[in-house]
Amino acid sequence: MPTKRLYFLDNLKWFIIWLMTVFHAAMCYMAYAPEWWYVVDTAQPVFSATVFILWVDIFIMPVMFFISGYFGLMSLTKHGAGTFWRKKIGRIAVPWVFGSMVFAPLVTYIILASRHAPVDFWTFYTTLFWGPLYEQAQYWYLGAWAWRSRWFEVGGYTPSAWFWGLATLVLSPAYLYQKLFLAASGADAATLALANAVTQAPFMWSATLFLVAFFQRQLDYTTPLLTNLSATSYPVYYLHMEVLFPVAWLFTTLPALNVYLKYIVVCALTLGTCYVFSKYILLRIPCFGGTRK
């Protein structure tokens, strides 16, 4: 097992959570936004947001699963099954029940409220939410192999930031091209499926391993600020949609405001609010406060 704490994975964890927040915010301003998205600001949709969404969407969850799997198996081996599952029930199951039954309905209701649908929240909660509009928002929830293979230890595999960075640089435009332009060129369904298959998985793996390698090379240390960012990463994830979408909805009332400035302000307000609330309130609750301070 590693002899020191892998600070770079702590730092990658909070980074990917913050990236997920700005990713979700960008979906409010993208061109061709999905109709079901919680808040869609139709004043100035931008194609650059669409490109950003398509690019980030491929590797953001694999990175989270990699970190979770790496630390999860380590914890299971270290503490044993009984202690491991008791901790998981307290840290994940309890917040999941509360979030999926209390916060998720509030977030989902924004889909209707932001479109001025004539349905009050209680009617929505007692009918639509438990029917066709049921969802768990951000509360649904492979790295274990890497831990078993003793990655990041002396003599074990350490991904190369240069190699995987170059691979990501090469594969990114190939993946985005087939996603954005190949269909418009008249390619048939079989060609589209093949192009997606040969570009998506390699791009996902290269981007994931590049981020892991880059953070190990450049951010394998901690500071008081990085410690706080790591400790608050889980509560920030837990809160971000409840804060983000009301803020984004509020800013739809300012259609003349430049879309990029609007996006920056929405992201800053969301992340700042989530960080402060997490640090000073949620970390005092046992299910959120078990992380390293």
Characterization of this structure:
The chain is mainly alpha-helical and 293 residues long. The chain is built from ten helices and no strands. The protein starts with 6 loop residues before the first helix and ends in a 13-residue tail after the last helix. 30% of the residues are buried. The mean pLDDT is 87.
Characterize this entry briefly.
It is built from ten helices and no strands. It is mostly helical.
Mean pLDDT: 87
Question: Which structural class should the secondary elements be placed in?
Answer: mainly alpha
Helix content: 55-70%
| Overall outline | globular
Radius of gyration: 21 Å
Label this structure with key terms.
293 residues, 10 helices
Write the layout of secondary structure elements.
Layout: H1 7-26, H2 47-79, H3 81-113, H4 121-128, H5 144-148, H6 161-182, H7 189-218, H8 224-231, H9 233-251, H10 259-280
Helix pairs in contact: 1-2, 1-7, 1-8, 1-9, 1-10, 2-3, 2-7, 3-9, 6-7, 9-10
